[in-house]
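Mods, move this if it's the wrong board.
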Amino acid sequence: MRTNMSNEHEIAVLGGGPAGYAAAIRAAQLGAKVVLIEKDKVGGTCLNRGCIPTKAIIACTTLFEKIKKAESFGITSDNPSINLEKVIARKDQIISKLVKGLEFLIEKNGITIVRGQGKVLAPNKLEIETSDGRRPACRTGRLSVISRKLIIATGSTNALLPGFNFDHSNILNSDDILNLTEVPEKLTIVGGGVIGIHFAAIFSLLGTEVTVYEALPEILSGIDEEVVSLVKRILKRKNVSILTGTRFEKATGKILICVGRLPSLLGLEALNLKMDGKSIFVNEKMETNVPNTYAVGDAASKKMLAHVAFEQGVIAAENALGANRTFNYNSVPIGIYTSPEIGSVGLTEKEAREKHSNIKVGKFPYSALGIANAMGEAEGFIKIISDDSGKILGAHIIGAEATTLISNIVIAMKQGISADKIGGTFQSHPSYSEGVQEAAEAIFKASLHMLNQ
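Not the wrong board. Structure tokens:
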């Protein structure tokens, strides 16, 4: 790690999560001298406490679920069991490997890393205090980092539920539950968003009695209603109780609070940033109201997703070095790793009907896909929504490989490819991607492998 901080840097990036390290790497690729300030491990919440560890655990529980169904494939597998302690150890190994790989990339791109809590004194000046109370001094003894441009990527933290403070023993946040090594008998999940439903799926497969409380009328806000309906039926089969339109008051056993996340703004007070609700206000170029200062990722984003953070970080870095790129939220995909998976992009059917006088909906069931039946994954469907002209307004998939399949439709939406063009581009057989083609053809009542209504 470089420690010579006496020279001015072109760009300082505050925060080493997906938005921050993407910004730092892209700026360095473009020839800038970059300093990255991170108080914890690089990779942020996504790599260390979110996306990757959750998926590592889900991979184990999904495999366990398949093994328990082995008899239906003609395979004898008596009394399979799962060891949560080993599952968590595997998760930790994966994270460690990926963090080391990321640190290698940062180092090889010539980026200076400073470990510690950053405090912005002015748009071009930061002070860093390390976790043990010491501060990294440069050759001149000054305790600051100087830069011409600042990119804020401070991420987000778990939101609190009034009246329930995390004790990290019985009342847990999403960080805590990723490190449980014993399967709880009961788990109450407060919050029926993506995080809550992920953990409901995980622990129900481990044999835990799970109850989900959601104050809103429905779980998975923003996801197509027909997809949510199927998710609820699947979870009910797995003995997950879901209480919607219900405020949580008390429960026994383990309680997981996952009622959302809030932007982390510590150390930014001196900037007098304009706010957009609880987030930092930015324009489409990721610029804040403070000259030469950008904000990206969870601290400023309307969608707290790692892939949004990556793109925003890259755009901010390029603009800080003279480009003129913009960011918008059109065609942002969502992946939810339930069993089966969910992939979504664009408007839900309800939103499309509210915004457009006429829409067309093409839907194709997994039960009509040869590959899905062969693989024992016949539950789910693919839905594509278009306007009268065939312009794709949204798509929603629940089923095997959904998070991969949705990328085909994301590309089509980004490039302005119409539904009839997707229907006219045949896929390999047998494959899950045939379902995307068939759903597109169903918009025009031309699907081959189901009755066109």
